[in-house]
Amino acid sequence: MSPSRYTTASIAEIVGGEIQGSGNRDQEIWELLIDSRRLAYPNGSMFIALVSDRNDGHRYIPELVEQGVRCFLVSNHWAQGTGHRAQGTEHWAQGTEHRAQGTGLQIFIVVPDTRVALQKLAAFHRSQFCYPVIGITGSNGKTIVKEWLYQLLSSGMHIIRSPKSFNSQIGVPLSVWNMDDSHEMAIIEAGISEPGEMDRLEKVIKPTIGIFTTVGPAHDANFSSMEEKVDEKLKLFCNAEVLIYRSVYSIITRRLDASADYKKVKRFTWGSRENDNLRITGIHREGERTLIKGICEGIEGEITIPFTDEASIENAITCWAALRVIEIPLNPLKGTYSASQFYPPGGRSKPPSGGLGVIPEGTPSGGLGVHTRFSSLAPIAMRLELKDAINNCSLINDSYNADINSLSIALDFLAQQKQHAKRTVILSDLFQTGRSPEELYTEVAGIISSRKINRIIGIGEEISRFQDRFSMHKEFFPTTEDFLARFLLSSFHDETVLLKGSRVFGFERISQALQQKAHETVLEINLDALIHNLNYFRAKLNPEVQTMVMVKAFSYGSGSYEIANLLQFHQVDYLAVAYADEGVELRKAGITMPIMVMSPEEQSLDALLAWNLEPEIYSFRILQMLKEAIVRSDLASYQEVRVHLKLDTGMHRLGFCDADLEKLTGMLKRNPRLKVRSVFSHLAASEELIHDAFTQEQFTRFLNMSQVILSKLDYPVMLHILNSAGISRFHEMQLNMVRLGIGLYGIGYNQEEQKKLRNVSRLRTVITQIKQVKKGETVGYNRMGVAEKDTVIAVVPVGYADGLNRRLGNRHGMMVVNGKPAPIIGNVCMDLCMLDITSIVDGGMKIEEGNEVVVFGDDNPVTKLAETLQTIPYEIMTSISRRVKRIYYHE
User: Fold this and answer.
1) Bridge partners (DSSP) listed for residue 7
2) How does DSSP assign 615-649, residue by residue?
3) Cα dihedral: 174, 180, 185, 190 (round 10)
4) Shortest CA distance to 392 belongs to which of 490, 501, 475, 487?
5) What is the three-state SS of 787-810?
6) Which of 242, 404, 487, 768 pairs as cysteine with 266 (C-beta 3.0–4.6 A)?
7) With contact defined as beta carbons under 8 Å apart, do 169 and 141 qualify?
8) Average of per-residue pLDDT across 495-515
9) Measured between alpha carbons, how far is 882 from 817 in angstroms, rounded to an integer?
10) Which residue, among 710, 598, 732, has the nearest Cα to 653 in the 3D structure?
11) Residue 266 pairs with which residues in a beta bridge?
12) Is the alpha carbon torsion for 137, 143, 144, 149 positive or negative?
């Protein structure tokens, strides 16, 4: 919530917008809303109608008017009537004002580009504060460095930081909007994917301290060279006082030297070189911890971190370097920076007495002794995970940090879940200094109430003090131990539980108690990747074209209601399932959107009608059975039954042929309760260039056949024929709707498209046991695996009962262990298989029982596995057993 007083009139002046409508120009705005589904405070919200290739926010204005929103930031194209207006939107620009019953007059701020206006508003807001702002960019590690700096500094300061990984052209201004007078520092991360983006973000962030984490291949696709990408990222620091980076990334130094824009930017480098400001003199791994030694300004120091991997060590040293810049005056002759310069006279925020409180008491002045805080750094949960829990519950685990911004994000994820009517939040104390606890928990209670949460379980002495602020069913406990001892976990039943807590409360114990027990093989589903793929295909569609998404076969192995919930939340028009029982399962899980059943069966027709599912009709037999089911059903006499007609245009699988159309249309006209919702067909080879002539022939035949049907009906009917590959290849065939299937799950029709899609699924397991096998000995059933030399094998708990194809055995297939390929040795067993990890161990890599093993994922794509098996990705993905636990997550 922004603390500064902004009115609709002042916002219009800041962004250079024109006010239209007769709403209140003095209405105070404190909430910026970009997603109509996340509305919490209608009176104080301004909806920003963002426009992209994939969506147009203006279409959601009418529903927000009905919900009481009074202020809108809109584009010229919409105001002038040239954009895509949602049905029912009044032409207020022509003098007709928007009125919503009981909500009063609306006001519209009209600008050329709403995204640019959002950035202008955030940039103005940023200019109101004089406290230090740390800006972070780089190929990897941005979010980790941001969160660890917050952990290291927040106990002595009130810090605002980007929630999760809000580092985009939209996420950055929304993060900056949260800055207020109570803060003493801001930490904002910025990510880019193409040239031109960082210029805009720099104006919004205006960092005083810059951190460039790493230089790597991430997002290379849209840059002509690594130099161009580094140049673009460096633009974030053109007005910074100091830039922190690792000297091994010499390309940063070269690009800084090559441009006059950075002559005033001081540099603080770390590394092993003599001239590094923080010179690392030793890195020693000791069990699960790493001791790091260094020298800064001639003074030796050390830190210990609870990690041993290279990435964590690099991120921790970057944080250490940042603390040196923030905490102590450094020698200006070396081009370094004094923290006192961050606090200009008369600034709105000044440092607390005694500095920032980072150096522990008793440490020599200018020393590096912050090891006590580094030793307690917590791993960063980079994602929100959705898992099955006890007693038919769903568990959302976000138990590593708790602040008001990340709470809102977690609650939004909870709002997407419709599988259970009841929702419970388990919330710890929020460690957020600078605000009175009463103000903080009053706001928290309001946020939770606005999300329609049924029950709050508060854990912590501070949140318990303000339990009267929460109006829903509530229970409070002083500690996690007290909750586990006194609360009856079996009382959780048929509900979705959000676990949101600060690290010190140890909520992982609650998570372990609530999770359904399952074996160690897990299929992870990246929901952000799925939405990326959905939007990729949506961007190819004409604005009026609807989208049907195939969720048959357990959503290609990815799950049922979890995927459907996400698609419903993102306003897909239709779902399609194979059988009626799949549709019934979705209805029971709270899916209300239209669902087409592709293979209705006689015994399922009664359930199909009872649950308002829409059958595909492909033969006279199934049509006759449906008519009989309608007669014996208890449907009201006026209630229509929507159906979808399947035409056979050359696939020769299911569907009506040309000769059937006269009889078919006659039966439809004699049965007015049957309403044809769509007519469709299936392309046989849409992805094959060699068969394009046949595809065109199918399309022409479909148009001719469907026209015969449409000519006999006196109401509109949708037409659709395109599948995933067809969406990409045949723009002219979009018609009224398209059917998106395997493309949603990250499988492109060719290598070029594959690069633009994101992998959705990752099947992983762990090493159960490691064995030494002598030369000549055998491994597995039938002694098929013969050790040609002394061999190290790893046993992993995944087998053909989990969906691992037996043909992958005997070195035909492989898995990935610590980033290295390991062939499967011997036959695949029902529940286990064995990997040859000899070459990995001989290469010097330490492999231990419990280490992660990737069956397929980014490191071992399912498409590669399909090539090995001479099959298609569909078969592999749909073969994963339901006994394999699914974990759904947002990054």
Assistant:
1) 28
2) EEE-SHHHHHHHHHHHHHS---TT--EEEEEEE-S
3) 10
4) 490
5) CCCCEEEEEECCCHHHCCCHHHCC
6) 242
7) no
8) 87
9) 24
10) 598
11) 242
12) positive
Closest by CA to 424, choosing from 496, 493, 370, 476, is 496
The two three-digit tokens of residue 665, written as one number: 């249309």
DSSP helix/strand/coil, 255: helix
How much of the chain is in helix, strand and coil states, percent to nearest 5? 35, 25, 40
Answer yes or no: are the C-beta atoms of 23 and 106 closer than 8 Å.
yes
> What would the DSSP string read from start to end of 668-735?
HHH-TTEEEEEEEE--S-TT-GGGHHHHHHHHHHHHHHHHHHHTT-SS--EEE---HHHHHH-GGG-T
SS3 736: coil
CB proximity list for 853: less than 8 A, separation 6 or greater:
764, 765, 766, 767, 794, 796, 815, 816, 817, 822, 835
Contact 232, 197 (CB under 8 A): yes
Tokens 């592999």 sit on residue: 876
pLDDT for 350: 35
124-157: b (≥16 Cβ within 10 Å) or e: bbbeebbbbbbbbbbbbbbbbbbbbbbbbbbebb
Q: Is the pLDDT of residue 355 over 70?
A: no
pLDDT digits (tens, 9 = 90+) for 301-332: 899 999 888 889 999 999 999 998 987 433 33
Non-local CB neighbours of 573 within 8 Å, separated by 6+ positions:
546, 547, 548, 593, 594, 737
Q: What does the block give as tokens for 723?
A: 């599948």
Distance between CA atoms of residues 706 and 717, nearest Å: 10
Catalytic residue among 552, 556, 745, 800, which?
A: 552
Dihedral of CA atoms 879, 885, 886, 889 in degrees, nearest 10, equals: -150
Distance CA 814, CA 773 (A): 19
Closest CA to 301 of 245, 358, 376: 358
* Other CB atoms within 10 A of residue 411 CB: 23
Structure confidence at residue 553 as a pLDDT band (50, 70, 90)? low
Q: What angle do CA 310, 856, 216 make, to 5 degrees?
A: 35
Report the alpha-carbon distance of residue 810 to residue 797 in Å, rounded. Answer: 17
- CB environment 574-590: b (16+ within 10 A), e (fewer): bbbbbbbbbbbbbbebe
Query: How many CB atoms within 10 Å of residue 853?
Result: 25
The predicted pLDDT at position 506 comes to 85
Long-range pairs for 491-494 at CB < 8 Å and ≥24 separation? 492/389, 492/390, 492/391, 492/393, 492/424, 493/391, 493/392, 493/393, 494/391, 494/392, 494/393, 494/420, 494/421, 494/422
Q: How many CA atoms lie within 13 A of 747 on its CB side?
A: 22
Calculate the average pLDDT of the chain: 86
CB 877 within 8 A of CB 552: no
CA distance 851 to 491: 35
Give 444-458 pLDDT, tens digit per residue.
998 898 888 999 999
**The residue count for the chain:** 891
pTM equals: 0.71
Q: Which long-range contacts (CB under 8 A, 24 or more apart) does 95-102 make?
A: 97/21, 97/22, 98/21, 98/65, 100/65, 100/66, 100/68, 102/68
Instruction: Work out the number of other CB atoms within 10 angstroms of the CB of residue 450.
Output: 15
Distance CA 366, CA 338 (A): 12
Q: Is 781 a catalytic residue?
A: yes
When pLDDT is averaged across residues 82-86 and rounded to a whole number, the result is 38
Tokens of 91: 């032409």
